[in-house]
Design goal:
Chain lengths: ~325, ~525
């Protein structure tokens, strides 16, 4: 087990370095940070001096070496745009994104798993057909359109929910949370639904497909023949076997939810990491973009590791293999 | 939380919100598309920063609702006797927001800070030779030459408290790292900072000790940057914010059609224009012309000018909200040349015959560069212009991109023709002459945005005179000559003045200034 984790950790470090390298080489094509940092009246030589001070004239390898070296020492540098420390900026935005992602994922699970099971058990029912059709429409519409539709319906027309921001937040030991105020939940609802819709469809269809597969297998049939109660067959035997691949996907989904919250955060002006990243692109804020990409890579790596460990916990066969 | 309790708490939440809104009617919320990058008034010379900080900091002079200069921390000013420059008489009894007194030392300190290498606003002080503190409330700015425009050019030069800056290690503006002044303020202005969360929310409260007459009734003002235009509009229409600047042109009808909202329309001081690669020896992006640059022929440039149909652009792209421009500043700006206020008429036949005369009866192809996120409808405008050019035989290969890529391309001379918008920082014609019409000269800091390298000896010769001349009539005569020359030579094709479109709730009274600055001290919430 320890060997397994160690192996994964070593792999992860390589993944992170590769991401940092890729991200950093892409920044050369994003545009010129200096013209975004200075006003129109700034003399060319002042711009040039700033470029020199920031080390933008150095060869690519030198810049990359400096970037990774500083990162490894825990120095994330300063934002070109706000002049704040990038580490603090990202850290202050992480709670918003994590809470949004978690709630979105919960929505997709709480709704997705039961409907998946239901549609697997009654594959030809009218309700099943309408659910499948509705969710198909749901995935076909781009996230930002869903977001804007929700905003105009619940925010502008009905006036029930706020259209932007996080609402009331509470500080809990450095973690700024919107989960403990009514205002915060009201603000969270629309973006979480927007972000969760796509995942919901995915979860539901996956659960349905897996469940139907399992229901066709021999041990369920024999169980039926032996007169095991249907309820126990469905939920105790079939569902738990369905969950192994589902957990993989959910794990990856969580990484995806965090990474792709950019669109949702932009539509709802949700002050998370995605919005920060988007603003950073606009201003060619290279230090923030670099750290963001590395942090996101770290999330993916971490989530994958947790998924692997969960496998071992859920599936006894893997445990036996590992012990032998 | 069960569904029922959730519903109940949501209802309670709504009720609370409604009653809270009723109790503090003067709290004011506004949004814009860009967050000010810093709270330091000398670190970045950009409109979002200067506009925002004009509510907190003040300069010696300021602009009123009609953009004219009036006294602020200086009560009056006069030309120096016997040498070039200006003497400013400071207002007495003014205190900074932390309670310390304002005097000439603070002006001197702020000058040194704002003209230092670390400051992005140092170009304002390029003509300044020396600054002298005469007494506690008199300061002399000595300039290299007579400089009638100097007071106008420092309207956004904001004064910091010397003691505060020194105590907090903010003697110099921080451009590549944070310092105390990046997140904290101490100005003399009508508002002060209550909280700052960059990119998320910034709250201002009135400065109880402000020296001026309070015209607003705002008790707390919250600013939220909203980058996505649809989100901003929704925030206004749902009542969560009171005011937003700007809104997209296509949303005007939607705001106007709703009760309780209004649209404020005006003209920005920004003129949109096409520029040419005057000094390019050959076209870079042509498929049929090699070894030569037809745009070096004035007849070709004139043909391009005659090919543009501003009336159609106005009707189709701008819903009748733009005015054609004849020169690089709009009417009303000081130095505007009344004598040269006609723009080339839309005349495709004339354009074709000019092209034929120049030796291109069948036209030619060239590259047109445009930004797609800088000016209102910039990409659509270029598409429209490209088809108008094509109608006379000028086949534009259009390429567009975000502005962060665009300026470096223009600086690298990668264009045959390009789009540019210019707003004169000093609100005077001298500004575009210096930046866009003078022969580029980095030593004298001239022509730094003259990408095409337009050059005319007479224009270069007239500029110092325009900068120095104190007599308005003599000065205008020189400006008129420059405008006449650049029109005749078609140095640029001025297109139109960019519209300025803000939206607000009906119960909010505010002033739309032509520089797109938003001043909280002119806001009343009814």
């Amino acid at each position: 087990m320890a060997y397994f984790i160690l192996k994964r950790l070593v792999q992860s470090v390589f993944v992170m370095i590769a991401v940092a390298f890729l991200a950093f080489s892409l920044f050369r094509f994003v545009g010129d940070p200096i013209t975004q940092m200075t006003g129109v009246e700034t003399a060319i030589e002042d711009q040039e001096r700033l470029r020199e001070e920031l080390g933008l004239n150095d060869p690519f390898v030198v810049q990359f070496y400096r970037f990774t070296g500083d990162m490894l020492q825990g120095d994330f540098g300063y934002s070109y745009r706000t002049r704040q420390s990038v580490g603090e900026m990202i850290a202050s935005r992480i709670p918003a994104t994590l809470e949004l992602g978690t709630v979105a994922l919960l929505i997709s699970l709480i709704v997705g798993i039961p409907t998946g099971v239901y549609t697997a058990l009654r594959p030809r029912g009218f309700a099943t057909q309408s659910i499948l059709l509705t969710t198909l429409v749901g995935v076909s519409i781009p996230t930002f359109v869903i977001g804007i539709m929700l905003i105009f319906l619940f925010g502008v027309q009905l006036g029930w929910l706020p259209t932007f921001g996080r609402g009331g937040t509470v500080q809990i030991g450095g973690w700024e949370s919107s989960l403990f105020t009514i205002d915060g939940w009201r603000a969270l609802l629309l973006p979480a639904i927007t972000l969760g819709v796509y995942q919901l469809t995915l979860t539901m269809r996956l659960v349905r497909a897996e469940m139907m597969e399992v229901l066709r297998s021999d041990y369920i049939r024999f169980g039926m023949a032996r007169g095991v109660p249907m309820r126990s067959l469905y939920f105790r035997h079939a569902l738990s076997n369905t969950m192994v691949p589902v957990i993989t996907i959910i794990g990856l989904q969580f990484g995806g939810v965090i990474a792709f919250s950019i669109v949702t955060e932009s539509v709802f002006q949700w002050p998370g990491m995605g919005l920060l990243f988007l603003e950073s692109i606009r201003f060619v804020d290279i230090p923030v973009m670099g750290v963001y990409l590395v942090v996101i890579a770290f999330f993916f790596v971490l989530v994958n590791l947790i998924v692997d460990l969960l496998y071992v916990a859920i599936d006894p066969r893997l445990r036996i293999k590992d012990e032998s | 939380m069960s569904i029922q309790t959730f519903k109940r708490s949501a209802l309670v939440g709504t009720a609370l919100l409604v009653s809270a809104a009723g109790a503090s009617a003067e709290s004011f919320k506004w949004a814009s598309n860009t967050d000010p990058q810093t709270m330091d008034p000398h670190a970045v010379n950009s409109a979002p920063v200067l506009s925002f900080l004009n509510n907190i900091y003040e300069g010696l002079v300021r602009r009123n609702q009609g953009m004219a200069i009036e006294g602020s921390l200086a009560e009056s000013w006069e030309p120096l006797d016997g040498e070039d420059g200006w003497r400013f008489y400071l207002r007495q009894g003014v205190t900074f927001q932390d309670g310390s007194a304002f005097n000439a030392e603070d002006v001197m300190f702020s000058y040194q800070r704002a003209s230092s290498e670390a400051a992005d606003v140092r170009s304002w002080f390029a003509p300044v030779k020396e600054v002298r503190v005469v007494d506690d409330y008199t300061v002399d700015f000595v300039t290299n030459a007579p400089n009638p425009l100097f007071p106008d050019s420092i309207a956004n030069f904001m004064i910091l408290d010397k003691g505060w800056a020194e105590a907090n290690g903010a003697e110099l503006p921080a451009r590549d790292a944070e310092n105390f002044a990046t997140m904290n303020v101490n100005g003399t202005g009508p508002f002060t900072l209550a909280s700052r969360d960059p990119g998320v929310k910034t709250v201002l409260v009135p400065n109880a000790n402000w020296w001026g007459d309070v015209e607003h009734n705002v008790t707390e003002a919250t600013f939220t940057p909203i980058g996505n235009a649809a989100t901003g509009l929704a925030a206004l229409l749902s009542g969560e914010i009171d005011f937003i600047q700007p809104i997209p042109l296509q949303d005007v009808a939607q705001v106007e059609s709703r009760d309780g909202f209004k649209v404020l329309e005006g003209e920005e001081t920004r003129v949109i224009m096409f520029g040419f690669g005057h000094e390019h020896e050959e076209l870079l992006y042509s498929t049929d012309v090699t070894g030569t640059n037809p745009f070096q022929d004035v007849r070709v440039r004139m043909a391009a000018a005659h090919a543009i149909d501003i009336a159609s652009i106005d009707r189709v792209l701008f819903r009748g909200k733009i005015d054609g421009a004849s020169q690089l500043v709009p009417a009303g700006i000081s130095g505007y040349s009344e004598a040269n206020s006609t723009r080339p008429a839309y005349d495709p036949e004339k354009a074709k015959s000019l092209l034929a005369e120049a030796g291109y009866p069948n036209g030619f192809s060239f590259g047109l560069k445009c930004p797609n996120d800088r000016y209102i409808n910039d990409e659509a405008l270029c598409r429209a212009a490209a088809s108008m050019f094509a109608a006379v035989g000028l086949n534009a290969e259009l390429s567009t991109g975000p502005v962060r890529d665009y300026w470096p391309q223009l600086r690298a001379d990668e264009f045959d023709m390009y789009l540019l918008g210019w707003s004169p920082g000093t609100f005077d014609m001298e500004h575009p002459i210096r930046f866009l019409m003078s022969t580029p000269n980095s030593e004298k800091k001239l022509g730094s945005w003259n990408f095409g390298g337009y050059s005319n000896a007479r224009v270069d010769e007239l500029l110092p005179g325009i900068q120095r001349e104190v007599d308005p009539a003599a000065r205008q005569a020189m400006v008129d000559e420059v405008v006449a020359i650049t029109q005749e030579e078609v140095a640029y094709i001025p297109l139109y003045t960019q519209p300025l479109i803000w939206a607000a709730k009906d119960n909010v009274d505010l002033t739309q200034r032509a520089d797109n600055f938003f001043m909280l001290r002119w806001v009343t919430v009814n």
